[in-house]
Each structure stands twice: as structure tokens, then as C-alpha cells.
Amino acid sequence: MKPATTLRRIAAALTLGAATLTSQLAVAAPVKNVVLVHGYFADGSGWQAVSKILTRDGYKVAVVQEPETSFKDDVDATTRVVDAQDGPSILVGHSYGGAVITQAGNDARVAGLVYVSAFEPDAGESLKDLVTRMPPAGKSIKATDDGHLYLDPSHFRADFAADVPAAETAFMASSQVMPSVASFTAPVTEPAWKSRPSWAAVATEDRTVNPDLERWMATRANSTTVEVRSSHVAYLSHPAEIAKLIEQAAAGSGKR
């Protein structure tokens, strides 16, 4: 073999090796974008404490304000925010937001999923299917005559946010978002947790979603799971623990 040919092959091999190493390092690098998705009866402002912690720690945070007019509308709103980020994102969902991120998480820009006292449906499953499997302790969700859901204000704190100050929950009850009944019965078609790494926080005192259902869904999805002694709104009452889990997901999503 001629010396020039040998040198060219060595140079090509070195170039390929460097490119491979660069690619591997890029995949393993922590994700710095976080997209937060709220659930029923709330809006994105509830994520403020978690957002402040993540921002302090160097993450770029975006909060989705779902219209809650239909499951498709909420998935589209989430995808719109994910696609506006400058790189891969960790997608975080609370409660119904878990179903939203399960569908929206198939976006190529999503690196991992974090479920906070949230639903993790499989293909063909709706929230109605899951709560029928393991009903929650609370029974205060009602429907309006025109097809929307609300949580009875007189039971709002006990069933939704028992570990949040009463003055705050009173305002939450009076300002709650009323989602469409149709979003409660809409099935997920392609669960992103089958192709993305996932993490889950189980709220052990949850009266809105059965904690045993949260554990069962997390096990089925092979989600890395922590338990938080919290009401349904763990992101409000335990923001440090939830932010820590999100940061673990951001650090670990490229290593799986």
C-alpha cells in the first residue's frame, strides 16, 4: 500500500472517530430546556415556584397554557411550545397534562418525559378508562350541562390541594379552568413513554388521582419513580422535590 493512501485512510479514520465522539457527547449532554404542562382545573401560573428553581439552576423554562377545549387542541398547544425551543426539551405534565405529554412527547425535540401525579395512558386509553380501573378517593368532580368539568369549590382544597394554604386554594377554586368532557374521554394514540425515557412523581396523599394508579402506570411505563408526601398538586406544595426530579431527567435523558 502506498504511503499516501495509508495516510489518507488514517486521516479518514481519525475524522470519523472524532465525529462519533462529538455525537456521543452531544447526546449525553444535559438538556437545558424544560416545557411545563398543567392539568385540569388549573393554569400555567401554578408552575411558578418550580420555574423559579429551574431558572436559577440554569434551565430555560417555557409554560404551556392549554385551552382545554379538546385533547387535540391541548396537544397542539404543547407541540407549538416544544417546537419553539432552541434545542431538545424535557416535557413535564401534571395530572391531565400527563396524557397531553404522552401524545405530544412523540415530537422529535422531546428528550424525556416527567409525570407529576399524572396520567400515563397507553395506546387507546383515555383518562376515563384509567380512573375507572382505580377510582380516586375524591368524588367532587362534576359536569356542566354544556359538557365541561369542574371541581366543586366546597371540596376543592380537600380533594385537590389539601397541603396548600386555604387562602390560595380558595382563589384557585374560584379561578379554576373548566376542561371539556371530551378531553376526559379522548384516547392517546401513540404513547411517547414507549420511545422516550420517563420519570414520575407519585403523590402519596392524592385524592384526585389514585396513588396506586400512579404507581401502576409508572411501573408499566418503566418510569424512574419517586414518591412525595403530597396532595394532588405536588408541584405547588413541594416545588423543590419536583424541580429536583426534572433536573435528574434533564441530566439523565441522554444517557439511556
Sum up the structure in keywords.
six-stranded parallel β-sheet, 256 residues, Rossmann fold, 11 helices, globular, 16% strand, alpha/beta, two-stranded antiparallel sheet
Order of helices and strands: HEHEHEHEHEEHHHEHEHH
Radius of gyration: 21 Å
CATH C-level name of the largest domain: Alpha Beta
Helix content: 40-55%
- Binned strand content: 15-25%
What does the model show?
The strands form two sheets. Strands 2-1-3-4-7-8 form a six-stranded parallel sheet, with helices on both faces. Helix 9 links the parallel strand 7 and strand 8 (224-228). It starts with a helix and ends with a helix. It has two domains: 1-30; 31-255, Alpha/Beta hydrolase fold, catalytic domain (Rossmann fold, 3-Layer(aba) Sandwich), CATH 3.40.50. The longest helix is centred in the first third of the chain and has 26 residues, at 3-28. The model is unreliable at 10-27 (pLDDT under 50). It has helices spanning 3-28, 48-56, 71-83, 96-104, 127-133, 156-160, 166-174, 181-185, 211-220, 234-237, 239-252; strands at residues 33-37, 60-64, 89-94, 110-116, 141-143, 149-151, 198-203, 224-228. Helices cover 43% and strands 16% of the residues. The protein is an alpha/beta fold.
